[in-house]
Amino acid sequence: MTIKEKREPQNPRYNARKTPETIEKARERSRVHREKRRYEGPEAYKQRAHAAYVKYLQPKLLTDPERYHAKISEHHARRHRIERYRRGQILKQWFFKHAWVRDELPWKSHRPVLYDQNTGHYCAGCEWTKYGGRRLWFKNLVDESYLCQSCYIPPSPDWDQIMPKGYEDIKTLKDLKARKQQLDGSGAPPSR
């Protein structure tokens, strides 16, 4: 018996139902269902989220609240210990709060672009157009393509490539302002 024969179910009724037409009909039903859920609106989404909370999280919270809260806080603490997450969040704060960080620093390969509203771009890294768009994108200085933050700061980032030229070792805003003053010979613009 070959591996393929082992994978195929021996039930003839199952194999008879698995025709190209039935597979295509199932895909169409699934697509219609996804589209319907996508455009139901925020109220329907809130109702589904609350139903999931009641079904899965509320029983755990009611049976052993100390253990549940300890597990959640441990998860958050573990996440903040990861350098990629921590430094990525710091960079994101700098981009949102200080226009001079985005506009005046000498970025190597991509310049951060912040929009007033969520804007959809095709991300060249994940090869996907982000649903709903993003406010923060990274525009390639050479070919005008875009990266989302997840692709610009990958799971194993090389911070020398991510940070601007001359600012590779900077980790705080205070150090960033001091380095800018040192390199430019003038003070960094005040934050807004």
UniProtKB/TrEMBL annotation:
* Protein's name according to its UniProt entry: Uncharacterized protein
Q: Where does the record place Basic and acidic residues bias?
A: 1-10, 18-29
* Species name: Aureobasidium vineae
Region named Disordered: 1-41
